[in-house]
Design brief:
Layout (H helix, E strand, L loop, with lengths): L1 H21 L8 E6 L2 E6 L3 E2 L7 E4 L3 E9 H6 L7 H11 L9 E2 L4 E9 L2 E12 L2 E10 L3 H13 L2 E2 L2
Antiparallel strand pairs: 1-2, 2-10, 3-4, 4-5, 5-9, 6-7, 7-8, 8-9
Length: 168
């Protein structure tokens, strides 16, 4: 009986160490809510607020960035661009920014998204760009990191994208 208990205790200790070493899913305390102009998103604590021209909000981390751009539908229409849906807006954004590889826009329930890679100042980056259709505006949320880290961060980017909410 003592041997069985010892094996169970040792097994539980090993399992706890594995969970501590590799994590057992994302913990809420590892994220912080960010709110701006009626939009809320959960970002990892490693993100720090920064400033980027033309971005509604912008956060950087040691390995990447997250940013949001709010565009009023009236302003888009006045500029001569026709975007009747998040899909249209995403496709127009791809074209206007000459995004390489003509990425395919995919739907993920409450938003559409596309992925791509681009070299900037000699460094390769990968991006996940999500577009939300919210009443009289579109929100574009862009995540980026070093290309070699993208597969590692992709699930976190999608978790943040899935956490987006808008004020009613």
């Amino acid at each position: 009986m003592k041997i069985h208990i010892k094996k169970t205790v040792v097994g539980l200790l090993v399992l706890m160490l594995i969970c501590l070493s590799f994590g057992c899913g994302k913990k809420v305390e590892e994220e912080k809510p960010m709110e701006c102009e009626g939009m809320s998103i959960l970002l990892g604590k490693q993100y720090q607020e920064a400033v980027l021209a033309n971005a509604t909000w912008y956060y950087t981390s040691p390995d990447g960035l997250a940013m949001g751009i709010r565009s009023k539908k009236d302003d888009i229409e006045k500029s001569g661009l026709e975007a009747n849906s998040a899909q249209d807006y995403a496709e127009a954004y791809i074209k206007a920014n000459s995004i390489p590889g003509s990425p395919k826009v995919k739907s993920n329930g409450k938003y559409v998204y596309f992925e791509y890679s681009r070299k900037v100042s000699g460094t390769d980056y990968s991006y996940l760009t999500c577009v939300y259709d919210n009443k009289d505006e579109f929100w574009l949320v862009n995540f980026a990191c070093y290309k070699e880290l993208y597969n590692e961060y992709k699930a976190d980017f999608f978790a943040s994208a899935d956490s987006v909410t808008f004020e009613e």
